[in-house]
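Students often ask why we bother encoding 3D structure as a string. The short answer is that it lets us treat folding as translation between two languages. Here is a chain of 593 residues written in the first language.
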Amino acid sequence: MSTYTPPYADANFVIKELVQFDQYCSDAGLEEVNSELASVIIEEAGKLAADVLAPLNSTGDRNSARLENHKVLETEGFADAYQQYVVNGWATLTGPEEFGGQALPNVLGTAVNELWHSANMGFALCPMLSQGAVEALIAHGSEALKAQYLPQLISGEWTGTMNLTEPNAGSDLSAVASKAIPDGDSYKITGQKIFITWGDHQMTSNVVHLVLARLPDAPAGVKGISLFIVPKFKLDANGEPAELNDAVCVSLEHKLGIHGSPTCVMSFGDNGGAEGYLVGEANKGLMYMFTMMNHARQSVGLQGLSISERAYQQAVEFAKERTQGTDKDGNKMPIIEHADVRRMLLAMKSGTEAMRALAYVAASDVDKAHSSDAAVALQFKPRVDLLTPVVKGWMTEFAQELTSLNIQVHGGMGFIEETGAAQHYRDARILPIYEGTTGIQAMDFIGRKMLLDKGAALESLQTEIMITVNALSAVDSAAFIKMNRELRMAVKRSMQLRTWLLDKSVSNKDLAGSVCFDFLMMHGFLCGAWLLAKSALAAHELLGKGQYADEFLRTKLITAEFYTDYYLPRANRHADTVMSGLCGACEINSAQF
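And here it is in the second language, the structure alphabet:
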């Protein structure tokens, strides 16, 4: 099994040079927060990730949670690790101060969350869902519900879940059938939910479920869904967990990966109805839940980066130790000396660095979209809306390729479970599926995030990318000339696609659905190239100035150049596919398959 070393250097570089964290903190009035503090926090988080969580990753894979008498017993060692996570204050990092949080920027929380997911994705899913529940309650909960639940959720004393999916209602939430019957100041919740991540465990004194259900007089479809808090234990007069609620796990799924994370079938109301409390207004539950889902979508995209980083590190470690063939002097060669192995490693390295840049920049945009300055918030909200499906869709699809490359570097040993390479590949496979499949993200990107606003948010992004393109032209080197040429070509293709789709989709209602996947992937690879080009510009400017090791900066230049040659052409190929009449091919009659 491989060790895990947090990528401190690249995380700090992206935060300081791409996110421009110090400038953001100054503009936001965060006087005591800066990139130096961020570096310290990331380093401390890395210790817990590497020393405590990472060794439990394979343990969770081999010894998954089990169900006994409707109680989920988590993997041995997870409860102690969770308590260390809570005692050291990691759960409070980005929560609002009024409820016990540290109120640090979202982008810093994202950098720390990367470490948790790289170290142990099965474990990290638990606090990830809690963070989403906190976001939903902050945005939509009453003052009473906030006071009752947020302090414990933010401290990590309790954990949160998201209960959407039902046996007959997968991605189509209009089919949700769970019911909520008024019962005085509360509601009786009945129904069954499936695929509930960390729906039960014994690590905390309570689990707070956010549940979608229908009131008796609710309209049909998505307009009739309400959101409820349903705690595992009802609260007594002092707000402490007391009587067990009528909400239990009735079975655990047996999964391809993320074995350390229990995926529960939850049953509500088998004995008269689970006590629940309405969040916000009736029949607006789906809108409220999207607050949690959008947080989760960026978090799942981050998981794509995290698992790819872990796989990359394992591939490098193996390639340096595994010998095969001999050099000219007859000495055994580590396989990292073989050019094709280095190609695979550089493909993994450049891919993970592109994903990290996009994840952190998108997370920083979330901070700006929540700015107290209304003009700043108005400027960045469309960008957050635009990039969220790209972060979720492109990064999770890309992770399939990068974790597979780890197996390829290992050769036959990668196919053997004992090496651990297969676990990363298996764990990654869920990422393009949960929290909205790639197809759903792609339709969201092309429909609600491009066509609905007539391409305004995408045009703004294209304009910003062109600023980087023009900056590349000022550097007199072959590598920068090539990056300038290739990135300019790609962003112009994006502009052409925007105009073409806005025109053609008016008369062809099937067009968006036919080309959405390629449209999304095209912009994922484009954004990766853009941000690595920005990284290269920063690295070029910083060489020899002592702020970073020159070897690190020279490697950043190589990584950006490789990505331009190896991955950016895919953006153009996806663009070609969009404009090649793919929509006609997708009109094939279902009986013809």
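Translate back mentally: The chain has a mean pLDDT of 96. Keep this in mind for the problem set.
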